[in-house]
Fold this sequence. Notes:
Structural class: alpha+beta
Number of helices: 21
Distance between the termini: 12 Å
Mean pLDDT: 85
Shape: globular
Strand content: 15-25%
Strand order of the largest sheet: 15-14-13-12-16-11-19
Helix content: 25-40%
Low-confidence stretches: 1-42, 49-53
Number of strands: 28
Amino acid sequence: xxxxxxxxxxxxxxxxxxxxxxxxxxxxxxxxxxxxxxxxxxxxxxxxxxxxxxxxxxxxxxxxxxxxxxxxxxxxxxxxxxxxxxxxxxxxxxxxxxxxxxxxxxxxxxxxxxxxxxxxxxxxxxxxxxxxxxxxxxxxxxxxxxxxxxxxxxxxxxxxxxxxxxxxxxxxxxxxxxxxxxxxxxxxxxxxxxxxxxxxxxxxxxxxxxxxxxxxxxxxxxxxxxxxxxxxxxxxxxxxxxxxxxxxxxxxxxxxxxxxxxxxxxxxxxxxxxxxxxxxxxxxxxxxxxxxxxxxxxxxxxxxxxxxxxxxxxxxxxxxxxxxxxxxxxxxxxxxxxxxxxxxxxxxxxxxxxxxxxxxxxxxxxxxxxxxxxxxxxxxxxxxxxxxxxxxxxxxxxxxxxxxxxxxxxxxxxxxxxxxxxxxxxxxxxxxxxxxxxxxxxxxxxxxxxxxxxxxxxxxxxxxxxxxxxxxxxxxxxxxxxxxxxxxxxxxxxxxxxxxxxxxxxxxxxxxxxxxxxxxxxxxxxxxxxxxxxxxxxxxxxxxxxxxxxxxxxxxxxxxxxxxxxxxxxxxxxxxxxxxxxxxxxxxxxxxxxxxxxxxxxxxxxxxxxxxxxxxxxxxxxxxxxxxxxxxxxxxxxxxxxxxxxxxxxxxxxxxxxxxxxxxxxxxxxxxxxxxxxxxxxxxxxxxxxxxxxxxxxxxxxxxxxxxxxxxxxxxxxxx
Length: 720
């Protein structure tokens, strides 16, 4: 069936809205000396990258000994006297097991005085206390709290970086030992920790002598918390970006702010900010899976602050989530849990706080250490504690968590964890789970709207659809019915690509403006097609059509006067697939073709009327809202609004239509007159929205003196 709405074909159905990031505060900074070591930060030799092209260190190769006691003991690292060297970042003043020392007895961010808790327990309690807040863009994130009274929205980071940042921050603030171990391309054991970046022989390569190079203002903590001192800043740190990254913007704290600026605002010890810039860039999922840094735990013992890993290859590839809260009730076989995880991504984003249903999906995913993936060492893990053992810093399983520990040799127990979580985590009915899975799909779309070249976001979206198909099957729905209900035009434009055969996947500097240009290009191409039959969307990928492979989209940006918004392709990460590149390769997909979705279904017309007269408040930004409740089930194809307003100066008026979070301005002060009457006014932006439910017409008088009434209005819908 040909679909025409005012001469425009069916194609406007299901076009996703682009999102923008709010830029809030301005940033102040002061100067500090900058050592030459930072300018030469290529001292770490790496021969591997993760799926984002991030150069991560190799695993240590250490395997847990067969004996439980030896495995809990861990692998000895550097001697404790390295703490006195010039490479040191912060001073160790407490042990993770302390409960009764003067420092341990003090009240803290999430615990009272004389709590009797160890610092490990306090770490978990702190993560549990982090408030859940609205996120820039889609969904929610957390508010970072500090011992100094500073509170900031969570930083934009890659997934593994979130859990490392939280652990390092807490360890520094409370003078606790911390280190992670990896191995460089030359086989050297490398240690990144409170003592700096070192090998057994001393400072590694040209890494900084942190104690000599950077300032520590920790002695001002009490005065700052009391409001007697201003927060000290380091201009050089505040201007830093994660090395090699082009996607670490932190708009929640200021225009043009990057990771260094965020660290400058949460660490009085500026050495920690500089150190973290290196720790984050060289450690990823593969290092968190290394048993020398973390240990596997039983599902029943999961706590906030634990780390959930998805791993599906031996090296590089993985996804990391932080457990944010856990509510447990019942005991033994009757135990039930409700939990939430949060995760960053690449290109970097604020951690996205997932709801209970999607969290359950993450825990029960086979890639979380299930039978087919157990050898890749994913699943639920907890940080080892750095302690002194025989004069050497060693990452151990704390005694208090010994009963939670599962050895790497217990393959069957490890592989059973996803299934055990299926029993433990609270169950939703299929419709609720369907909505939750749809939310995961929307999370991936939201990330794509900011970074349209992201192959990870495309793949995550399709993984979400796989879950939708599975849940839909329980409800008797076919994949085609799921696609009809949930697929959008954008999903076909940003089709998944084969990572190692597609140069688009290396491109981290694409933008939300480019996303909208690509969508607009497709809309115009489909609208201008001579045939009124359906046309396939043009996938955003590199093509063998001249230039860098994106010429058609670049040319479109120029044609519509937005050439300055197009960012040329660049290899923002390791990109061997670009060397002999011909054209990007799409992944095989068995989704319902776009034309089947766009062309199916019978359109029916429906009209609704509200004749209640409402006074329009004079000079009131809240205006007046009139509602029409639609009881027709279906998907909106087109919307027309008739309305009658009497007002002594219609130039004061703004009229908006709202439905399910979608809004469209349909009138904005066209000039003076005694009344406003809009007849057959087509309203764009609601294509693909569910027709049933409340439609709200909002009328706002923006100026004083003149007054009027909303007399009546009608809503005309075409629905299929």
